[in-house]
Amino acid sequence: MKITISRNREKVEYKLPFKSTTLLKALYHIKNYQDSSLTFDSNCRSGVCGACSVRVNGKEVLACSHKIESGDYIEPLKYHKLQRDLKVDKKEAIEKLKVAKSWLNQPKEDATITPDGVKVNEKQSDCILCHSCYSACPVLEVNPNFIGPFALTRAYRYITDPREEDSKSIIDSIQSNGIWDCTLCGECTAVCPQGIDSKMDIMMLRSSSAQFGYSDPNFSSMDFGFGGGF
Ligand code: SF4
Ligand code: SF4
Ligand code: FES
Q1: 229: pLDDT strictly greater than 50
Q2: Region 45-73: what's the mean pLDDT?
Q3: How far is the CA of 1 from the centre of ligand 1 (A)?
Q4: Residue range 177-201: average pLDDT?
Q5: What is the rounded CA–CA span in Å between residue 158 and residue 154?
Q6: Where exactly are the structural domains of the chain?
Q7: High-pLDDT (> 90) share of the chain, %
Q8: pTM, full prediction
Q9: In angstroms, rounded to a whole number, what is the distance separating the alpha carbons of residues 205 and 66?
Q10: What is d(CA 150, CA 148) in angstroms, rounded to the nearest whole number?
C-alpha cells in the first residue's frame, strides 16, 4: 500500500509492505526502515493516552487504533503550532482548561462521592485529552480564542461534580469565547474516540447558565425587523 504524509506541510509518499495495519505501526515502520527523521507523537500505543491523534483524509483519529488504507493522506491536527511533520505543540489548547476553570474550585466540606455521584459525569471523565475535538471544531478557524470542546466538556464535568460548592465560577468563566460561540455543529462529538458528546455538554452548560441569569448574547442583539412596524 501507499500512504502520503504531510511533512512540514510538504506531501511525501511512502510505500509500505502491509495489506492491513494501524497507522501507528505504519509510522514506526517508516521511521525504523525508511526515514528515521519522521516525527510524530505516541505513548501508550493502546488508545489510552491521547498522544497520537492526527488527521486521516481530513478526519481526526488516534493513530494507534486507526486502520489505514492505500491512498490515505495523513496530516497533523489543526489549530496547533506545528513542531515537525505530524507533531504539534498542545500547550496553547491545554491552557483553555484554565480559562474555563475546569477543576474543583471550592470543594464542599466533608463532601463524599457516592457510586451514583460518579455516574453523573463518568463519560466526561473519560476524556484522554487527545485534542481531536479541538482540531475538528470549525469555530476555531474564525475565533482562535474560542475555549473549544474538550475544555467545555471538562467544565461540565466539574459543575456536575457533587463535591463542587462554587459551580458559578465555572459558569462565569465560559460565557465569553465559550458556550454561546459554539454553533452546535456536532463535529467534536463525531470524532471523539471516547464517545464523549461535547455538543450535548455545551447544551447542558447553556441550560445551567440560564439558571444563573445568563442568556445567549447573540440572541439579545438580533434585529427581528419589528422596529418600524409596531
Ligand atoms: S458543536 Fe460546538 S464545540 Fe463542537 S465542533 Fe461544533 S462548534 Fe465546535
Ligand atoms: S472530548 Fe474526546 S475528542 Fe475531545 S479531547 Fe477528550 S477524548 Fe479527545
Ligand atoms: S499512543 Fe496513546 S492513544 Fe495512541
Answers
A1: no
A2: 98
A3: 34
A4: 98
A5: 6
A6: 2-89, 91-218
A7: 85
A8: 0.94
A9: 32
A10: 6
Answer whether 184 contacts ligand 1 (Cβ < 6 A). yes
Q: Read off the amino acid at residue 68.
A: I
Pocket test residue of 90, 102, 132 for ligand 2, highest count of atoms within 8 A of CB = 132
Kindly tell me if the per-residue pLDDT of 80 is higher than 80: yes
* Gap between the Cα atoms of 214 and 223, Å rounded: 19
Distance in angstroms between the alpha carbons of the first and the last residue of the chain = 68
> Quick check: CB of 47 below 6 Å from ligand 3?
yes
- 195 alpha carbon to ligand 1 midpoint, in Å? 15
The strand order across the sheet containing 2-7 reads 10-15, 2-7, 73-75, 53-56, 59-62
User: For domain 91-218, which CATH number applies: 3.40.50.11540, 1.10.1060.10, 3.30.70.20, 3.20.20.70?
Assistant: 1.10.1060.10
What average pLDDT score do residues 179-189 get? 98
- Give me the phi and psi of 202, to 5 degrees please: -70, -40
CA–centroid distance, 179 to ligand 1, in Å, is 9
Alpha helices in 1-160 (DSSP H): 23-33, 91-94, 96-99, 115-120, 122-125, 132-136, 139-142, 149-159
Pairing of strands 53-56, 59-62: antiparallel
User: Cα–Cα distance between 28 and 6 in angstroms, integer?
Assistant: 15
Closest CA to 128 of 182, 52, 179, 54: 52
2-89: CATH superfamily: Beta-grasp domain (3.10.20.30)
The answer to which of 13-17, 93-97, 109-113, 135-139 has the lowest mean pLDDT is 109-113
